[in-house]
Design a protein that fits this description.
With 214 residues, the protein is mainly beta. The protein has 2 domains: 83 residues, Elongation Factor Tu (Ef-tu), domain 3 (Beta Barrel); 93 residues, Beta Barrel (Elongation Factor Tu (Ef-tu), domain 3). The strands form 2 sheets. It has a 7-stranded antiparallel beta sheet with strand order 4-3-7-1-2-6-5. It has a 6-stranded antiparallel beta barrel with strand order 8-9-12-11-10-13. It is globular. The termini are far apart.
């Protein structure tokens, strides 16, 4: 589990194919800030742009680690198949503060940036989410964008999907890789975990609906 509070901005330094076909995944080499890996061990979970990955190799002295990503994960995420800056978050500990919201590290869909511009001291970010995620998005609700826990300030249902508006304070832009986004950039989205359970609980029970009352 994660909280959507980014603990470091790293860099995908190298991408290596794990095979020659489209069914093979990739191995990523990640460079981290100084001392970031001091409390990380092999097998630990680290979210990369909101996608939970397992540390497969570790070089704390050089502040580097590697992860292996399957073809399926690459197909369902964005920004993990090329070099560049990336948001990092270590897995949540039981005694940690929950500064953002409960995040599983499982990407629900890929959104597209439709607007990103400075407004006063802050930045306005608009993202077009897939139509399938629209019912989980709510005004003042939580959304994870590339691993960052954010609050939805505006909702607009469109034919192409659901456009959400988000306000980014300067600290968020400076402390994450969101500042590198541009119109057209693809971002990883994860809906609020609670929304999943609410949907499940509100679904009719197939056993009850199939019973015939005499």
């Amino acid at each position: 589990m994660f909280t959507g509070i980014i603990t470091g901005v790293g860099r995908i330094a190298a991408v290596h194919a794990l095979g020659s076909s489209s069914t093979h995944g990739k191995r990523l080499s990640i460079e981290c800030p100084s001392a970031y890996l001091d409390d990380v061990g092999l097998g630990d979970s680290i979210a990369l742009n909101g996608a939970c990955m397992t540390v497969t190799r570790l070089d704390a002295a050089q502040c580097q680690f590697t992860v292996d990503i399957s073809a399926e994960s690459l197909d369902k995420t964005a920004g993990l198949a090329q070099t560049g800056p990336i948001n990092l978050e270590k897995a949540l500990r039981a005694n940690d503060r929950l500064g953002g919201h409960m995040v599983s590290g499982h990407v629900d869909g890929i959104g597209s940036v439709t607007h990103f511009a400075q407004v006063g001291e802050s930045w306005e970010l608009r993202v077009l989410a897939p139509q399938a995620l629209a019912k989980y998005l709510a005004y003042k609700g939580s959304i994870t964008v590339n691993g960052v826990s954010l609050t939805v300030n505006r909702i607009e249902d469109l034919e192409a999907g659901c456009q959400i508006g988000i306000n980014l304070i300067p600290h968020t832009v400076q402390s994450t890789a969101l500042g590198t986004l541009r119109v057209g950039s693809h971002v990883n989205l994860e809906i609020d975990l609670i929304a999943r359970y609410v949907e499940r609980m509100l679904k009719p029970d197939p056993q009850q609906t199939s019973q015939v009352t005499l």
